[in-house]
Design goal:
The chain has helices at 2-10, 15-23, 38-45, 61-68, 90-103, 107-120, and strands at residues 56-57, 75-79, 82-85. It is mainly alpha-helical. Among the domains are: 1-45, no CATH class; 49-118, no CATH class. A 3-stranded mixed beta sheet has the order 1-2-3, covered by helices on one side. Strand 2 (75-79) and strand 3 (82-85) form a beta hairpin.
Amino acid sequence: RCVLKELESLGKALYGAKLIAQRFEVQNCSHHKDPVSGSACLFSMIEEGNPHHFFIATQDQDLANKVKKKAGVPLLFIIQNTMVLDKPSPKSLAFVQKLQTNQLVPEHHKQSIVQLKEKEGLAKQEGEKRRKRKRARGPNPLSCLKKKKKKTLEGQEPSAEKKKRRKRKRNR
C-alpha cells in the first residue's frame, strides 16, 4: 500500500509503474494509517526474518544493499527488459551453511553409534572390502560373422531345397 501511495504522489511521470504495481496482490503493512516511503515499507516487511518468503524487486541501490545484508531474501532487478535474480548474498550462504551443520548428527552421537555397532558386530571390517574381478568374456556376437552352412554333395544342394526365384514385373 505504501508503494502505491508513493507512486500516486509522484504523479504522471510514473503512471505506467503505478498501473503495473496495481496488478499485483496488495500486502497489508503495519503503517497503513501513516504511509512511509516504498523502500522503507518493503524493508520493514522482511525485517523479522522474512516469514512470508517475499522476493524484493527493486532498482533502488540503497534498498538492494540493505536487502543483501539480510539472510534469506532473494533480490530481483531488471536489466534491459529482462528480470534477473541476483546471486545469494554471503549472509544468506552463511545462514544456510549454519542450518546444515545444525541438522547434522552431533559428534558425541556419532561416537556412540560406532560403539554400539561394534558391540553388536555390525561394524564394517577392512578385510570385507574386495573388488570384483572382471571375467574374460568372448567377442561381441553382433560384430562376428555368421557361420557358413555346410554344403552337401561337394558343393551342390539337393534339388528339393533349391529356392525358386521370382521375376519382378515392371510397372509402366
